[in-house]
């Protein structure tokens, strides 16, 4: 299999004779998806990457499958990847993105690395696919083909039951032995899947704890902002209350004749309150008070008193 890890994961699966079985890519795919997808086709003996330095995720997947990790001597050039993509069309498959292309290129180059030995094994074993798989797996992990074949034959002899009066021959037990092997393989797959699920649960727990911490920090910051806004509003309200009291005193002073409102240019005395065009001054000198200003102030006083009632 070829694996291109990253935000979008590219995955390619070849059989032991170099034919593509599966090519796909998925965004934000986790190791569980990779594991489950591959297991539907069997157990890979080679996990390949297009990088001369294998990414940690590729190493992890290879270790989980007990497969040999294959890396090129240098990063696979784009020209070689494009040539591999063209060869895929011969199998009636079309690559949809660069992630699929990179995964296929890694798988094909890994296969080509072992192809000469694989072809020799195919000639020697004929149509015995079980023997072919056994010997190829052994050769991939560094064993000689001759020794692997001897071990395979020796294993067949040890699995054959002794002929007794009531014991059926080995040929009759072959389906049973095969079923036992299948059940053992299935049990091993379940154990691997359980380990993978445990890792996924641990990752989700860590993400949940991080999310909770982040939300607590965010809530604390929001609360502090609200407190600051509340304190600022209180200060503004206090200033406005003081201003209202001051204006009430001035209005009462104007109504009682203690203060007078005149134009800015006509001010003579101590200024109590100032606007753009007029001021309130004390003491009152009626001869200096302009009639229009007095009328304006008196009108304001009456309006204010009416609102207070």
Poorly predicted ranges (pLDDT <50, ≥5 residues)?
Answer: 160-173
CATH domain fold name of the largest domain? Nucleotidyltransferase, domain 5
Tally of DSSP helical segments? 8
Overall average residue pLDDT: 79
| CATH class bucket of the largest domain | Alpha Beta
Helix content: 55-70%
Question: How many strands, what sense, and barrel or not for the largest sheet?
Answer: 3 strands, antiparallel
Order of helices and strands: EEEHEHEHHHHHEEEH
Please give the order of strands in the largest beta sheet: 1-2-3
- Count the beta strands: 8
Class per helix and strand makeup: alpha+beta
Shape: rod-shaped
- The separation of the N and C termini measures 90 Å
**Name given to the CATH architecture of the largest domain:** 2-Layer Sandwich
How many domain regions?
3
Q: What percent strand?
A: 5-15%
